[in-house]
């Protein structure tokens, strides 16, 4: 689990990032979870955009993505979800 200080740090780090995944009409599926897990391994921190056409609410999408990828939910801001998972090979982010 992340501390409040670590979440603040990660929110600041994620601020300049653009969402690299979009959750739309198909909602969350296994293929998407696998792709996001692979991207988290490469980047550690990423944003996912929830489109208006998605039938699930953004909290449910965030819960499923973080559970499926075994990552930490940093924040939900607007329709954007920020996820963090420490990388095994490509560790770039040093948490406070």
Task: Characterise this structure.
The two termini are 13 Å apart. The chain has a single domain (4-84), classed as Translation Initiation Factor IF3 (2-Layer Sandwich), CATH 3.30.110.60. The mean pLDDT is 92. Strand 3 and strand 4 (80-84) form a beta hairpin. The chain has helices at 4-14, 30-43, 58-69, and strands at residues 21-23, 45-50, 72-77, 80-84. Helix content is 39%, strand content 21%. This is RNA-binding protein.
Using brief descriptors, characterize the structure shown.
96 residues, alpha+beta, Translation Initiation Factor IF3, 3 helices, 4 strands
CATH level-1 class: Alpha Beta
- What is the number of helical segments per DSSP (H or I, 4+ residues)? 3
CA gyration radius, whole angstroms: 13 Å
Give the strand line-up of the largest sheet: 1-2-4-3
Write down the overall geometry.
globular
The fourth-level CATH homologous superfamily is YhbY-like
GO molecular function: RNA binding
Keywords: RNA-binding
Protein name: RNA-binding protein
Pfam families: CRS1_YhbY
């Amino acid at each position: 689990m992340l501390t409040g200080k670590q979440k603040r740090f990660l929110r600041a780090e994620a601020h300049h990032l653009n969402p690299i995944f979009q959750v739309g009409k198909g909602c969350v599926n296994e293929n998407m979870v696998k792709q996001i897990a692979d991207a988290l391994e490469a980047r550690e921190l990423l944003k996912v955009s929830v489109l208006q056409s998605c039938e699930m609410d953004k909290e449910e999408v965030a819960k499923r993505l973080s559970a499926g990828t075994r990552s930490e939910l940093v924040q939900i801001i607007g329709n954007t979800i920020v996820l963090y998972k420490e990388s095994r090979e490509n560790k770039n982010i040093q948490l406070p």
